[in-house]
Structures
1.
Amino acid sequence: MVKEININGRKIGLNYPPYIIAEMSANHNGSIERALETIKEASECGVDAIKMQTYTADTMTINCDNEEFLIKGGLWDGFKLYDLYKLAETPYEWHQKLFSYANELGVTLFSTPFDETAVDLLEELNTPAYKVASFELVDIPLIKYIASKQKPVIISTGMSSEKEINEALDAMRQENNDQIILLHCISSYPAPVEKSNLNLIKSISRNFNVISGLSDHTLGTTISVAATAIGASVIEKHFTIDSSDKGPDSDFSIEPSELRKLCENTYKTWLSLGKEGFDRDIVESQSKSFRRSIYFVKNKKAGEIVTKDDIRRIRPGNGLAPKFERDIIGKILKKDIKVGDPTSWDVFI
């Protein structure tokens, strides 16, 4: 398995804190000023990266009124695909300013391209990485084109079968690009908590020999923290400055206060995992001195025999271990003993 991947100098893998991505998506609500503010807010919350989406309505679909181009049910019920993407797109002419601003702030910005023209634009902007959306995992020509740029590629796996994931990975590796991160994802908006199936994160890493993580569409941050606890190396979460300013993705996006908690709590969770094995940390050394051990509870003279009533198993832990109680009973003292003296082998004949 690839043990680590580097994006803009930040190492990603099980040996490093989770890589937190704030997904801006359509939460700019059609305003470049809001897009810039979103980047700034996310950066101040402590994320590792902000992700946007690079497409136009015309590169996503066609302007067609046929029934199959209409969304039925869910968050975007009644929208025609073309109209939804027109509403949500991040104009190409914004990209240079957004990338430059992120660079000024010292935070990573990259994007999800939805066709080859978007990849070309992002290459001109020297994007440090790419994201492939769940819906595009089956677009093998696009994945091969992205992979050919020899940058890290993060792929969401929502809706995908094991066969489809393998086909996407094969396409990447045919381009000699093994810088792959797979994100477990439930493509429902918002996703029900009880359908999260976080155990799949470990299966993805093991079965596909890649670094794995979570693209989280549930409400709140609990599931992202739980995912970190079972080994997610990347957490992606939709982010908005203010969800009351309704936009296409606002209903399943978190606000700044939640994003700060996400960054803090996933880091603490990762810190708490530690490593396997039974070596005890030095932090426990002081407590260890207050374990139970065997002490003398009566004054005794040299030459006397120790009886059960002369000793007790008590705290602190400076005497012999409790398991030696029977070995001590019946032994002869070679020196005087006072109440409160710890037992030790050198006081016996």
2.
Amino acid sequence: MKCTHTKGGHRLSDAEVAAFCEQLAYMVKAGISLQEGLMLLAEDNKGAQGEQIVAALLDTVESGGSLAYALQETKAFPGYMVSMVEIGEASGKLEEVLGSLCAYYERQEAVAKNIRSAVTYPLVMIAMMIAVILVVIIQVLPVFAGVFEQLGSEMSGFVVGIMQFGSAVSRYAVVIVAVVASLIALYFILRRTKGGKRFLSGVYEKLFRKTSLAVASGRFASAMALTLGSGMDVEQSLDMALELADNPRIREKIREVKRRTAQGSAFAEAIVDVGLFSGLYGRMIAVGFKTGTMPSVMQRIARHYEEEADRRLGSILAALEPTLVAILSLVVGLILLSVMVPLMGVMSAIG
């Protein structure tokens, strides 16, 4: 586990949490005591940035504290993980809980990575497109303006307007760069706060509604699989899933499912009625209840939604690339044609 934060710092990433859970689960499965396992992790992290976190965990456990309490004290682990570890210790299923947490956070990291790719790629393309257009406006057009002036002709009003825009951009370049840098800094700050993450999730949900719903539904199913597999009942699992959900529409649907199940409706029926899952998944859940395989059913549903989200993200990326290239070609071509056509007319007249 290569941790990047120290005690009292920011929380670990999903990938780091998954690695920690996987290593500790292997040790518990091998019959190694919790204290010995943490000592081994501390030795593995000698000189690494994660050493202080593991050392803090070991100190708390050696003082008689539980693993859940030790995790909470470091403030480096997610609250959801702390709660699940506490349940695992109380139920004697710590190994199973750690293994499930590892799988859960690996899936969350994979989903988050796909989302970052879907957002980053078009942003980079747009930035490159703007850079090319600005180079044409600021560097190329003035050269043509000089040629027109020497020939005693005038450029079209469209091109003159574009050049004036380019001059304004050059004049206020420092201000523009400062604003862009501030927006980028604000983005990274928002990513580190709970409220900021919800705001960004809301923006993402509006931009990619169907994909966002697929991702949120997959996370809900994954959380339900983990909590139900740890021995929680449906009501407790819904409470935990509600805490994790950051999509407003999914949160509202979970509340409605809770309300309906409290009034006596079957869980599978309530989930389908509120539109959280499709009818097929509802039937799978009903069968899972009868056969006692709800955790595995929820895991399969989570994988289905993750695959659906991947397909949608792939489709978006496949459509964005040619669209952005076409827009860039159109804009640059339009600017150059506005210059070249009059220039060719002047050259013909001179000839």
